[in-house]
Write a structure and sequence with these properties.
The protein is an alpha+beta fold. Helix content is 35%, strand content 27%. Strand 2 and strand 3 form a beta hairpin.
Length: 169
């Protein structure tokens, strides 16, 4: 079963948690990626018949997104992690600063035609072909809808909608 999220509009989702950190502090220790992953995954598992299984399964994808943000952001500004839920999806949104536009306004993880922009700023890691392949693979494995977008000229967002159904195969 492959179901698309109705919209990337957060108004259709109930907020669950939001965490905001200084990027320099976040990047000061790689271990913050693991701690934030565990925290967010535990919250994602709430309300499921087998919360540990659901949390453990989604922690793989959550960790990849957090590590991608870790490698992609500059040292200045704030990074935000937010979780939302509606009846059929759980949404993870990671927003972080980038120094320059990264070429395309939107990139769908299911589309493989994205080409990197030479000399792009800190968000370049997210849009490199390796990053696009990783996101496409995660979308397929987790039956998720994943999108990378630029918000204004200074921020990149990773948005992932995971089906709330527990029957991952």
């Amino acid at each position: 079963m492959e179901q698309e999220a109705a919209s990337f509009d957060d108004h259709a989702f109930a907020p669950m948690v939001s965490l905001e950190l200084d990027v320099a502090m976040f990047k000061s220790r790689w271990q913050f990626c693991d701690g934030i992953t565990e925290y967010l995954s535990d919250i994602l598992g709430q309300g499921h018949s087998d919360p540990a299984r659901y949390s453990n399964f989604l922690s793989v994808a959550t960790n990849e997104f957090i590590e991608l943000a870790f490698r992609s952001t500059s040292e200045l500004g704030r990074i935000r992690f937010s979780l939302y839920r509606n009846a059929t999806f759980n949404r993870l949104r990671i927003a972080f600063p980038c120094e320059e536009a990264f070429g395309r306004k939107h990139m769908d993880a299911r589309a493989s035609e994205h080409q990197p922009v030479p000399g792009a700023g800190s968000g370049f890691v997210v849009t490199k072909s390796d990053g696009a392949i990783l996101l496409r693979d995660l979308a397929a494995i987790f039956r998720a809808t994943i999108r990378i977008e630029q918000d204004g000229e200074q921020e990149i967002q990773i948005i992932a909608d995971f089906p709330s159904v527990e029957d991952f195969r």
